[in-house]
Please model this.
Amino acid sequence: MANTPYPESYYAASANAVPPRPVLQDDVETDVCVIGAGYTGLSSALFLLENGFKVTVLEAAKVGFGASGRNGGQIVNSYSRDIDVIERSVGPKQAQLLGQMAFEGGRIIRERVAKYNIQCDLKDGGVFAAITAKQMGHLESQKRLWERFGHTQLELLDQKRIREVVACDQYIGGMLDMSGGHIHPLNLALGEAAAVESLGGTIYEQSPAVRIERGANPVVHTPQGKVRAKFIIVAGNAYLGNLVPELAAKSMPCGTQVITTEPLRDALAKALLPQDYCVEDCNYLLDYYRLTGDKRLVFGGGVVYGARDPANIEAIIRPKMLKAFPQLKDVKIDYAWTGNFLLTLSRLPQVGRLGDNIYYSQGCSGHGVTYTHLAGKVLAEALRGQAERFDAFADLPHYPFPGGQLLRTPFAALGAWYYGLRDKFGY
Ligand SMILES: Cc1cc2nc3c(=O)[nH]c(=O)nc-3n(C[C@H](O)[C@H](O)[C@H](O)COP(=O)(O)OP(=O)(O)OC[C@H]3O[C@@H](n4cnc5c(N)ncnc54)[C@H](O)[C@@H]3O)c2cc1C
Model:
């Protein structure tokens, strides 16, 4: 029986202690079988348990093994494509609903952390940093757009002001979002898993769903057991493989890499990010970074289309870090890892239902920490018969990647190369 550990990362090394979880070796019955214990699965499980459902979660490896336990830890509002793009591609009613939900995920995280006393180094404040005048113009219209949907904790930063919150000379300005922020992502997932169990939910680890028997009474099979359920929620995202073939064609796993420095001297940490905000730049292939609770710099960037693991992550990411912060040239990198997120062509989440009882949400294409928490709530609402908000996502159009399974990776890489060039030359 395979026993898949966490990949080596700063998060795994600093994870809060958790009890061992069982492998499914039985035939069990439940109301909802959730496949995948990342934020989507755990958030769904929590909302369902809070509403009286019996829930069983199957996790192929360990809680937070996927992107939820490896990400940059940035709480970023809205979706990977903003509401104005959504407004142009769907009707006003659907766009209005999606716009109203765009800031809910961050609130859900904060409520969860407070309600279940989750120790995950939550800090408020996220900065979008503009490198070009065009990006600054985009942030100005983004602020107006977000304010139109009731989000008011935003401040535009000019060149002098951004220099007060981040010691990087590349930026000409930015936008501070005080309802953004950052967390230790794996500890958030572990805390949510403990909350699931405190409400009577069961989580099986090292228990991959290997087959779904569809029908009026669906059954999820694992190598040593099965779960009979009224409903199934598929939340395996970029790690799902081909379990549900319908979902694979319209999404593509992509790798992105993160490094973590040794703990920085207090004075150096304070000089880099005096208010301890997290930062992401506005490039298409963006860099993002923040300080950890013990004052390391977590720095991420770059995308590997098709999710091949690069041989030397430090060699790819460290130069980006030094470009932003040459003052870190003598600082040692303690950890480097890779993780997969799921890209869709529209960069909007892929949400829906197969038959009457199999629900899914995946493919938030990069900015998923907040959306996945919202997704759990929206999926739980749909299972309770209130599907208006679920339908707003499910009705978003999705298309297969050009080139099919064989050529989608080079095609997407070519597209990203083009946008990378535009970033480079300031278009
Ligand atoms: C390196 C990296 C950095 C990122 N940084 C940020 C960031 O700073 N901010 C942000 O907003 N977003 C970020 N993201 C994206 C964000 O982390 C994801 O969008 C989000 O965590 C996805 O959550 P999820 O639950 O849908 O999927 P995952 O967290 O990937 O969870 C899926 C789970 O399902 C399990 N699974 C898969 N198949 C099966 C099966 N057959 N049976 C049982 N279990 C199964 C997997 O083992 C996994 O644990 C980043 C992603 C990566 C990879």
Notes: The chain has two domains: 10-70+186-250+348-396, 124-181+252-343+410-427. The mean pLDDT is 93. The longest helix spans residues 404-424.
